[in-house]
Automatic annotation (TrEMBL), chain A:
InterPro entries: ABC_transporter_permease, MetI-like, MetI-like_sf. It is a multi-pass membrane protein. It comes from Cohnella hashimotonis. Pfam families: BPD_transp_1. Residues 66-281 form the ABC transmembrane type-1 domain. The keyword Nucleus does not apply. It is found in: Cell membrane. Keywords: Cell membrane, Membrane, Transmembrane, Transmembrane helix, Transport. Belongs to the binding-protein-dependent transport system permease family. Its main location: membrane. This is Sugar ABC transporter permease. The chain crosses the membrane at residues 12-31, 71-92, 104-126, 146-163, 211-233, 260-280.
From TrEMBL, chain B:
This is Extracellular solute-binding protein. It comes from the Bacteria. Residues 1-21 form the signal peptide. Residues 30-56 are annotated as: Disordered. InterPro entries: Bact_solute-bd_prot1, SBP. Keywords: Signal. The lineage of its organism: Bacteria, Bacillati, Bacillota, Bacilli, Bacillales. Residues 43-56 have a biased composition (Low complexity).
Length: 290, 461
C-alpha cells in the first residue's frame, strides 16, 4: 500500500471510535427523535400517525405562547450584552476593587441553574427578603407576589438569567479585550481620545467577533437552555405564561402520558427554530462585520 | 489494503454497529427476557405467575428493589434520627425477618409527578423497580405499559379485605385488569379551623355550620371583620382540595365522567356559577396564598382546607383549639351533598421489569395488611386505613381521626376528581387555575380553555 493511502487509512481508523461515539450519543437520538415525531409513542409502543403531531403543534395555539416566552428571553439579550460589556471594560481598566468585583461577578456562573433558581425562589417569595427589603425602604407594601403573576415572574427569571450570565459574559469580553493591542489604546490616549470615544471607536469595534459569539450562544441558550431555570423558579407558571419551548418538551415527554411522539415533533420544531435563529444572527453579524 | 487492516476495520465497524444496536434496544414492550419477568404481559389479567425463585438459585436471596416515594425517611425537626427508626425501615426489617429468603432494597424517590416521570423513564429503559408507590386512578393507568397486571397474584380474600380497588382497576370498574394495590386512605378533605379565632369573630361552626356558599361567605366576612385572614390556600388555589369538590358536587360523579368524555362541557352555566363564587372569595380579600399551613399553625389564618394528612401537624400546633368541619355545599340543589373529596389517592404497583412479581405482591400485601397499616398510622404516617369494617378505636382516640375514618367511608365522599381527569388535564387545570385566582384569566375563558384541552386530549387518544 502506498504510504499516503496507509496514512489516510490510519487517520480515518483513528477517527472511527470518535465518530461511533458521536453516532451513538448524538446522531442516533436525533434520527430516532425525527422518526418518532411522526408517531404516537408512549416509550413502549409506537405507531405512525403521519404529520398529526406537527399539525397539532401548529394549530392548537400553544406554540405561539411558547414562542412568545422564548422571544421575551431573546429580547433580554441586548441588556446582558451591554452589562457584560460595561463590567468587562471596567474590570479591564482595573477600576478600584476590580479583583473583588471580578470574583463577585464570576461566582454565580459556577452555580447550577437549579441552585440559582431555588435561591431566587426563596428571595422572591411573598415573605422573602426582597419584599422585606422593599417594605423596609417604604417602596411597596411588602406583599408583592413576584412569581405568581406576569410580568413579575418574567422579571425574576430574567434577573436570574442576567445574574448567572454576567460573570461568563465579563470573562468572554475580558479575553476579547486582552487580544486588542495596547498600542492602539496608547495612541488614542496620546491623540486625546476620552473614555467614551475609546469605548465606541476602539473597544466595541474590536470586540465584534466576541459580541457575535456571546449573542449567538446566548440566543441558543434562550431556546434550549432555559429548562432548569424555569423548572426551579416558576415551573412554567402561572398558567403557561413563563413556559418556553424546551420546558414544554419536558412536560409533554415526561409528565404527560403517550405524548413522547408529540414531544419529539416539538423538539424538531425547536431544532429548526434554533438553527434558523442562529443562521440569521450569523448572517447579520457578518454583514455588520463587513 | 492488508487483510489485517481489513479485519481491524471490520471489527471496528461491527463494534460501532453493536453499540448503536445496544442503544436502540429500548423496546420496553418487547421481550423481557433479559429481565426475566416470567411472561407477564399487559394485555390484562392473563399473566402467568412465575416462580418466586425466578432469577435466584437455591440458597440465594431474592432481592426486591422498592422505590419509596411516600414513606418519610428524614425528620425535618430531627436530622439526627436514624433511618432504622423510621416506620418503613422497621416494616422492612419485620418482613425480612419473616421472609429470610427476601432482601428489600429501599431507594428514596421524589413524590408526585416526579415519581411518575422517573417510573416512566425507567419503564422505557426496562430497569424499573420491583415495587413503587404512585398516585392512583388515571395517573397509574397512564403508565400501565410499564406496570404488571396483578389479577393473577391477588386472591379474592385480598381484594375483599380492602377498599379502593376502583382506583386501581382499568376504567374505574369493579372488575377488570388490576394495575395496583390501593394504599390506605386519604380520608376526606374538609376544613380545619382555629376555634379561638372563630369564637373571637362570634362564630361557632359546631353549632351553626355553614350550609351553603352564602353562609360560608357570611362566615368569612365575620372572620375578616375580626381582623384575621379567613383562608390560607396554596398557590394554585387548592383546586384539588376545595374547588374540585364544589365542581364535582354540582355535576355529580357521573357528571365528571361526562365532562371527561366530552358529553358535557366545563363551560356550562352551573360550573360557571361555581367558578364565579370561587373567584369572589379572592376578590373579597378572604384568601392568602402565602405559606398557608404555617400561617394557620401560627394562628394568623383562621382556616385551611385539608384532610387527615394535615391533622397531626394541626393538632400539634393548635391542640384543643383545632376544629374540623366539612366543606359547605355550594348550593342547596347540588347533586352530591354533605360530602367531600378523598379516598385512596395512591397505590403500590409492580414494575413490568420486575423479575419477582409474585414476591413483590407479597411484600405489598404485607405493607397494606391490617397490622402494618395500624403500625404506620401509629408512627404518624399521613394515611388512614383502607380496610373494610375497621374500628378506629383499635388505633386512635382522637375524635377527628375517627371522624375522618367515618367520612372516608361515606357514599357522599367523591373520589379525587384529579385522579379521574386525564392526568394531562389535571396538570393543565392546576396551572391555569393559578391565573384565575390572581384574576389574570377570566373564569369563562378558563372553562373554555379546559374544554379545548379536554377535546385535544380526547382527540389524541
Amino acid at each position: 500500500m502506498h504510504f499516503r493511502t496507509k496514512e489516510s487509512m490510519t487517520g480515518y481508523l483513528s477517527l472511527l471510535p470518535a465518530f461511533a461515539a458521536l453516532a451513538a450519543i448524538v446522531f442516533y437520538p436525533m434520527v430516532n427523535t425525527f422518526y418518532h415525531s411522526f408517531t404516537k409513542w408512549n416509550g413502549a409502543e409506537s405507531h405512525g400517525i403521519g404529520l398529526r403531531n406537527y399539525t397539532l403543534i401548529f394549530t392548537n395555539g400553544e406554540l405561539w405562547t411558547l414562542l412568545r416566552n422564548n422571544a421575551i428571553f431573546l429580547l433580554s439579550i441586548p441588556g446582558i450584552l451591554l452589562l457584560s460589556l460595561v463590567v468587562s471594560v471596567l474590570l479591564f481598566e482595573e477600576v478600584r476593587g476590580w479583583r473583588f468585583f471580578r470574583s463577585l461577578y464570576y461566582i454565580p456562573t459556577i452555580l447550577s441553574s437549579v441552585v440559582v433558581g431555588m435561591l431566587m425562589k426563596m428571595m422572591f417569595a411573598q415573605s422573602g427578603v426582597v419584599n422585606q427589603l422593599l417594605h423596609a425602604l417604604g417602596l411597596t407594601d411588602g406583599k408583592t407576589e413576584w412569581l405568581t403573576q406576569v410580568p413579575t415572574a418574567f422579571m425574576v427569571l430574567i434577573f436570574c438569567f442576567y445574574w448567572q450570565t454576567l460573570g461568563q459574559g465579563a470573562l468572554i469580553f475580558l479575553s476579547g479585550l486582552s487580544s486588542i493591542s495596547h498600542e492602539i489604546f496608547e495612541s488614542a490616549d496620546l491623540d486625546g481620545a476620552g473614555w467614551w470615544q475609546r469605548l465606541f471607536h476602539i473597544t466595541i469595534p474590536s470586540l465584534v467577533p466576541t459580541i457575535v459569539y456571546f449573542t449567538v450562544t446566548n440566543a441558543i441558550y434562550c431556546f434550549i437552555g432555559l429548562f432548569s431555570l424555569v423548572y426551579a423558579v416558576t415551573q412554567g407558571g402561572p398558567g403557561r405564561e413563563t413556559t418556553p419551548i424546551d420546558y414544554m418538551i419536558y412536560i409533554k415527554a415526561f409528565q404527560t402520558p403517550d405524548q413522547l411522539g408529540y414531544a419529539s415533533a416539538l423538539s424538531i420544531v425547536l431544532f429548526a427554530i434554533a438553527l434558523l435563529a442562529s443562521w440569521m444572527q450569523i448572517r447579520l453579524s457578518n454583514r455588520f462585520q463587513d | 489494503m492488508h487483510s489485517n487492516q481489513r479485519k481491524t476495520l471490520a471489527l471496528l465497524l461491527a463494534a460501532s454497529l453493536a453499540l448503536l444496536a445496544a442503544c436502540g434496544s429500548n423496546d420496553a414492550s418487547g421481550s423481557n427476557s433479559s429481565a426475566g419477568t416470567g411472561g407477564a404481559n399487559a394485555s390484562g389479567g392473563t399473566t402467568s405467575a412465575p416462580s418466586a425463585s425466578t432469577g435466584a438459585s437455591a440458597g440465594e436471596k431474592t432481592k426486591l428493589v422498592f422505590w419509596n416515594t411516600s414513606y418519610p425517611t428524614i425528620d425535618e425537626n430531627d436530622k439526627t434520627k436514624k433511618k432504622e427508626d423510621f416506620y418503613i425501615y422497621k416494616a422492612i426489617a419485620r418482613y425480612e425477618a419473616a421472609n429470610p429468603n427476601v432482601e428489600i432494597v429501599i431507594q428514596d424517590i421524589p413524590d408526585g409527578t416526579n415519581a411518575m416521570t422517573k417510573f416512566q423513564t425507567a419503564g422505557i429503559a426496562n430497569n424499573g423497580p420491583d415495587v413503587t408507590n404512585l398516585w392512583s386512578g388515571n395517573y397509574t393507568m397512564d403508565l400501565k405499559s410499564f406496570i404488571q397486571p396483578l389479577n393473577d397474584y391477588l386472591k379474592p380474600s385480598d381484594i375483599d379485605a380492602m377498599t379502593g380497588w376502583n382506583a386501581v382497576t382499568e376504567n374505574f370498574a369493579d372488575t377488570g385488569t388490576i394495575y395496583g394495590v390501593p394504599d390506605g386512605s386519604d380520608g376526606t378533605i374538609g376544613i380545619l379551623y382555629n376555634k379561638k379565632l372563630f369564637a373571637a369573630a362570634g362564630l361557632d361552626p359546631e353549632q351553626n355550620p355553614p350550609a351553603t356558599y352564602d353562609d360560608f361567605v357570611a362566615m368569612l366576612q365575620k372572620l375578616k371583620d375580626s381582623g384575621v385572614t379567613p383562608i390560607g390556600s396554596e398557590q394554585d388555589g387548592d383546586f384539588v382540595y376545595f374547588l374540585d369538590y364544589w365542581l364535582a358536587q354540582t355535576v355529580g360523579t357521573s357528571g365528571i365522567n361526562d365532562i371527561v368524555n366530552g358529553k358535557t362541557n366545563f363551560n356550562n352555566p352551573k360550573l360557571l356559577q361555581v367558578m364565579q363564587g370561587y373567584v369572589q372569595l379572592y376578590k373579597k380579600g378572604f384568601v392568602t396564598n402565602d405559606q398557608p399551613q404555617t400561617q394557620f399553625y401560627n394562628r394568623k389564618v383562621a382556616l385551611i382546607f385539608g384532610g387527615y394528612g394535615y391533622l397531626n401537624d394541626a393538632r400539634a400546633a393548635l391542640g384543643d383549639d383545632l376544629g374540623m368541619m366539612k366543606i359547605p355545599n355550594f348550593s342547596s340543589d347540588a347533586l352530591v351533598k354533605n360530602g367531600g373529596i378523598g379516598g385512596t389517592g395512591a397505590d403500590f404497583v409492580v414494575s413490568k421489569s420486575s423479575r419477582h412479581p409474585e414476591e413483590a405482591v407479597k411484600f405489598i400485601l404485607f405493607l397494606v395488611s391490617k397490622d402494618e397499616q395500624i403500625a404506620r398510622f401509629k408512627d404518624g404516617y399521613g394515611k388512614l386505613l383502607n380496610l373494610k369494617n375497621v374500628d378506629p378505636g383499635e388505633f386512635t382516640n382522637d375524635p377527628y381521626v375517627v371522624k375522618q375514618q367515618e367520612w372516608a367511608g361515606e357514599p357522599a365522599t367523591i373520589f379525587w376528581p384529579d385522579n379521574i381527569y386525564p392526568s394531562e388535564l389535571s396538570d393543565y387545570i392546576s396551572s391555569m387555575n393559578e391565573l384565575v385566582v390572581k384574576q389574570q384569566l377570566d373564569v369563562r375563558d378558563f372553562l373554555a380553555k379546559l374544554d379545548q384541552k379536554r377535546d385535544e386530549i380526547n382527540k389524541q387518544r
